[in-house]
Design a protein that fits this description.
By secondary structure, this protein is of the alpha+beta class. The chain has helices at about 1-15, 55, 85-90, and strands at about 30-35, 45-50, 60-65, 75, 80-85, 95-100, 100-110, 120-125, 135-140, 150-155. The chain has one domain (about 20-155): Jelly Rolls (Sandwich), CATH 2.60.120. Helix content is about 15%, strand content about 35%. The protein is globular, with a radius of gyration of 17 Å. It starts with a helix and ends with a strand.
Length: about 160
């Protein structure tokens, strides 16, 4: 009986702070797809995402990496089509949400692939103006030549 008395207030606090939620009803947000071309020699170096003031002023609810199996190609700025990374290749990266030089969090990118999470989103719940997408970055952690390929990320925000 003591466990129930302890757990109930914790569950209520998590719900109140929006730390727990029903992932199946998620979808009331706007969505933007951000794609980044992987440059040469990226091991351990930061690959910054493009600036997006609209996302910076919003609450980021969730992020999702899009593997090649879901969307095979992404259009580049020049209009050419390039394959997205596969799930295995995305697993060679970490994602860091940041503002200036302050890192808000870092996660393995594979955790943000819905297919690896039984269809669940990787919830973020970042407060507006406490993150900057242009300061956020990917880091390649495993040696593999991925130069010229594309990483695509969906960002859900409101």
């Amino acid at each position: 009986m003591k466990n129930v008395q302890l757990i109930t207030p914790i569950k209520e606090r998590f719900r109140r702070l929006n730390y727990s939620r029903n992932y199946s009803t998620f979808g009331m947000c706007r969505v933007k797809k951000i794609s980044v071309t992987i440059p040469a020699n990226t091991i351990g170096n930061r690959i910054f995402l493009p600036q997006d003031p609209e996302i910076d002023r919003s609450t980021i609810e969730a992020i999702e990496f899009i593997p090649q199996e879901k969307t095979s190609y992404t259009t580049t700025g020049t209009g050419s089509l390039i394959e997205n990374l596969t799930e295995a290749q995305i697993g060679n990266f970490t994602f860091t949400l940041a503002k200036n030089d302050e890192n808000k969090f870092t996660i393995p990118a594979a955790l943000a692939i819905r297919g690896n999470n039984s269809g669940k989103f990787c919830f973020v719940n970042s407060i507006p103006n406490r993150h900057r997408i242009g300061d956020s970055y990917l880091t390649q952690t495993v040696a593999q030549n991925l130069s010229g390929t594309i990483v695509s990320i969906r960002i859900y925000f409101k």
